[in-house]
Design brief:
13 helices; 7-stranded mixed sheet; single chain; alpha/beta; 2 domains; Aspartate Aminotransferase, domain 2; 4-stranded antiparallel sheet; globular; Aspartate Aminotransferase, domain 1
């Protein structure tokens, strides 16, 4: 729907700051969305508005009451966006910090005996946290191997290593290296069939910008996103915790409100800017459907985003007009495989005759922003099994266009020789 509407594409792109130019580089195509998506203009304005307000929540004055209302309204918006009618939403330092905190709470607050399970496909935000706190708690860590060819981990892989004494499990929704999504609901079912009381924490950081989050359908206990990767700004993360996770001994101020995850005075602007994100999805859903219910419009937006991004990644992989796709280049490796139906707006590739660093540099010189993923502590778990030292990540969002993909493919035709 987005792909075939020039007017809608224009309206979408007009909603974002620096959509086609960098304040430092000048004109450029932004294919580095997995490193941080573009920011909504509304978020920029809202940030400035709340940064100027000196008042805090919890005081007996009109400004304080207004700020409290903004936070309350934002949490209600979050509940709709994530489809989480129960549980608590709160903000923290970052998505990684919140992931560590939820996992720490689950590991340290659950049974003294038991095990922690996670997969080799996970980002360090969840994997490092799970391994660290399992070690501190004296619990074994079970590592579920992912499929190197697809870049995914399956419910069957989890089921094969599950034991009844698993108390905490972690799941990656979408990989920031391969761009391939995992079946969160299916993995959660596989976990609960064997350890029904396990606490399940999901890293949704890479998935969020592509829409289609549905916590109520997952049967999980925690979900975390980084707003700067879903059209908001840096400086905070958003977490959802189930009521049963909140009932554990959480870190909070003594004699303070029960079940309060927030420590210290929060930035009201963080909550307000996430409201801007939800409002944008709501607006987009109204543009691509006739739905009137906010949740239905958000679901419609997610479906349209997925359709548009699939059209762009298919063109990127298989070519458009007379331009060969990335999958058709000589000596290419496509992480996750070219024919992967679970791809979400990201193609990561390597050429056997041109170093990834050279590709990124040459694309950047032509005003096409991409990113190198190296076999380091962030991406080594994905790249090393494939025998790759580095790969080029091309990540897009629904505001990117087919014309931008054409520019990338034209450049790659020359670079690949």
């Amino acid at each position: 729907m987005i792909t075939h509407s020039t007017d809608l594409t224009h309206a979408i792109r007009k909603s974002f700051a620096h959509v086609d130019s960098c304040p430092f580089q000048g004109p450029r195509i932004f294919f580095e969305n997995a490193g941080g998506a573009l920011t909504l203009n509304a978020v920029v304005d809202t940030s400035a508005t709340y940064a100027a307000i000196p008042d805090n929540q919890g005081r007996d004055n009109p400004a304080s009451a207004a700020l409290t209302d903004v936070i309350t309204q934002a949490k209600a918006k979050m509940a709709v966006f994530f489809n989480a009618p129960e549980g608590k939403f709160f903000v923290g330092e970052s998505g990684t910090e919140l992931t560590f905190r939820l996992i720490r709470t689950a590991v340290m607050g659950s049974s003294d005996t038991g095990a922690v399970i996670g997969s080799s496909v996970e980002h360090p935000a969840s994997r490092s946290a799970a391994m660290h706190w399992a070690e501190v708690a004296g619990k074994p860590y079970i590592s579920v191997p992912h499929d190197d060819k697809t870049g995914q981990v399956t419910p069957e892989a989890y089921a094969a290593l599950m034991t009844p004494n698993v108390t905490v499990a972690t799941i990656l929704h979408t990989s920031p290296v391969t761009g391939i999504a995992n079946d969160v609901a299916g993995i959660a079912r596989a976990i609960r069939q064997i350890a029904p009381d396990a606490f399940i924490i999901v890293d949704g950081i890479q998935h969020a910008s592509h829409g289609r989050i549905d916590i109520a359908s997952y049967d999980i206990d925690g979900y975390v996103v980084s707003p700067y990767k879903v059209f908001s700004r840096h400086g905070y993360g958003v977490a959802w915790a189930s009521d049963r996770l909140t009932a554990l001994p959480i870190e909070t101020l003594r004699n303070g409100p029960e079940g309060n995850w927030e420590m210290g005075t929060r930035d009201t602007g963080a909550y307000a800017t996430f409201t801007d994100v939800v409002t944008y999805f709501d607006w987009l859903g109204g543009e691509v459907s006739d739905q009137t219910d906010p949740r239905a419009r958000i679901e419609a937006a997610g479906a349209a985003i997925h359709e548009h991004e699939k059209a762009l990644t298919d063109a990127m992989l298989f070519g458009v007009d007379n331009l060969p796709g990335l999958a058709e280049l000589s000596g290419v490796t496509i992480l996750g495989g070219a024919e992967n139906p679970d791809r979400e707006g990201l193609v990561c590739f390597a050429l056997d005759h041109v170093p990834a660093s050279d590709i990124v540099d040459q694309l950047n010189a032509q005003g096409i922003r991409t990113h190198i993923r190296r076999a380091d502590h962030y991406s080594g778990n994905i790249l090393r099994p494939l025998g790759l030292e580095a790969a080029v990540r091309v990540s897009l969002c629904h505001y990117n266009t087919l014309e931008e993909v054409r520019s990338l493919l034209a450049a790659m035709k020359d670079i690949s020789g």
